[in-house]
């Protein structure tokens, strides 16, 4: 479905060992940031766990000893110092984007989020026009905290709205009220944030077409310049999955999800927001999430925090997941990296096709081999690729193609 993403190859827990000092192969650091460089900061704390969530996050009861919110900023800065040593004489020319995600980053004091951003700037230097994003749950921000974040240099905020329906929010175990997300969006604008995103989830059991229509109406009425909308995915091990296995809730319907996606496209397009990635719409080109575009176009980024993934020069690695283990490794002067992989040309090509085809800019047909070109021709004949863009040498999904994006990707790969 449109909100899904084909699993990236090789992101497995059994990759090769990361050296204790975190060092990278020389071939990986010869042109760091040539295609852009970003920093991701993972904040693993949540006030409560949503029923659908399987992210690497922890409530106070789940956290255990050895890690705390109070000391977290210092731990992240310790990994940043290690990163500076690893890149050494080959630092990126600048940091183009910073994205603080989670979890709920805004459970940390605004001063801590400011210190982390200042540390990134001091280490590598923020570009003059750097995009700096923090995620937030609507109930975790106030007008005052938003002003502090904006004054610290954060330019963009992404708020987890999910739905305007109290019933849907209850099924998802969201804590905020139905109107709080749009109110927080207004407060963020008043605080001076240049760009504001609202996240939606569609296809929740019990969600009616009119519920989702009301959510879209609220989003449009909020005047935000970016919207993300994802189909609900039921992950094993979550409370939502357990409820479905017990028969308390119905499993999501692909047909319903397709209807919701079409409703989102119609409402957002009519409001002047255009799709630029299958699950993302922006009012202007400047409103597009530049950090995510780094991911989707194969640029470099360093991920700070437990469970964070990084990619530099074709090497991808991921940190230990638990905050305590993460903090202990850094306290011992060791890399928190759990494992890594060096992407083969075949894996790099696969990811390039998977990710760039989801973009409105599409994929150059020239990067496809004979098998991929044959698949592209079938997709064109089936109305899944735009004929005009195809004639100009690019594979660009039609609206129907977006509904079947994963299937098109599979057809373009060997």
Automatic annotation (TrEMBL):
Its main location: cytoplasm. It holds the Pfam family Radical_SAM. GO terms for cellular component: cytoplasm. The keyword Iron applies. One of its GO terms (molecular function) is metal ion binding. Keywords: 4Fe-4S, Chaperone, Cytoplasm, Heme, Iron, Iron-sulfur, Metal-binding, S-adenosyl-L-methionine. GO terms for biological process: porphyrin-containing compound biosynthetic process. Belongs to the anaerobic coproporphyrinogen-III oxidase family. HemW subfamily. Probably acts as a heme chaperone, transferring heme to an unknown acceptor. Binds one molecule of heme per monomer, possibly covalently. Binds 1 [4Fe-4S] cluster. The cluster is coordinated with 3 cysteines and an exchangeable S-adenosyl-L-methionine. This is Heme chaperone HemW. It comes from Micromonospora orduensis.
């Amino acid at each position: 479905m449109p909100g899904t993403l084909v699993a990236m190859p090789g992101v497995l827990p059994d990759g090769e060992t990361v050296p204790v000092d975190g060092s990278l192969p020389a071939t990986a650091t010869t042109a760091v940031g040539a295609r852009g460089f970003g920093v991701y900061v993972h904040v693993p704390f949540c006030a409560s766990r949503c029923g659908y969530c399987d992210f690497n996050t922890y409530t106070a009861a789940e956290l255990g000893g050895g890690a705390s919110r109070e000391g977290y900023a210092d731990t992240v800065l310790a990994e940043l110092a290690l990163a500076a040593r690893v890149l050494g004489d080959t630092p990126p020319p600048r940091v183009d984007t910073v994205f603080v995600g989670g979890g709920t980053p805004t459970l940390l004091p605004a001063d801590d989020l400011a210190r982390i951003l200042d540390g990134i700037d001091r280490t590598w230097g923020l570009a003059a026009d750097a995009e700096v994003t923090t995620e937030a749950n609507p109930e975790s921000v106030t007008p005052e905290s938003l002003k502090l974040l904006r004054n610290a240099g954060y330019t963009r905020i992404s708020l987890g709205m999910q739905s305007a329906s109290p019933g849907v929010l209850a099924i998802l175990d969201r804590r905020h009220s139905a109107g709080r997300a749009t109110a927080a969006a207004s407060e963020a604008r008043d605080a001076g944030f240049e760009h504001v995103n609202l996240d939606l989830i569609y296809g929740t059991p019990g969600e009616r077409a009119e519920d989702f229509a009301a959510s879209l109406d609220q989003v449009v009425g909020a005047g935000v310049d970016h919207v993300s909308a994802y189909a609900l995915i039921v992950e094993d091990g979550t409370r939502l999955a357990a409820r479905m296995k017990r028969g308390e809730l119905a499993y999501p319907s692909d047909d319903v999800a397709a209807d919701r996606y079409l409703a989102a496209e119609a409402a957002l397009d009519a409001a002047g927001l255009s799709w630029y990635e299958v699950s993302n719409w922006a009012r202007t080109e400047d409103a597009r999430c530049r950090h995510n575009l780094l991911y989707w176009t194969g640029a470099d980024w360093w991920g700070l925090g437990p469970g964070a993934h990084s990619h530099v020069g074709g090497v991808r690695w991921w940190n230990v997941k638990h905050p305590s283990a993460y903090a202990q490794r850094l306290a011992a002067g060791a890399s928190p990296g759990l494992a890594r992989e060096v992407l083969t040309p075949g894996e790099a090509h696969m990811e390039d096709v998977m990710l760039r085809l989801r973009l409105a800019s599409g994929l150059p047909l020239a990067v496809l081999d004979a098998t991929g070109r044959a698949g592209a021709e079938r997709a064109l004949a089936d109305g899944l690729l735009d004929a005009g863009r195809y004639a100009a040498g690019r594979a660009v999904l039609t609206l129907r193609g977006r509904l079947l994006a994963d299937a098109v990707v599979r057809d373009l790969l060997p």
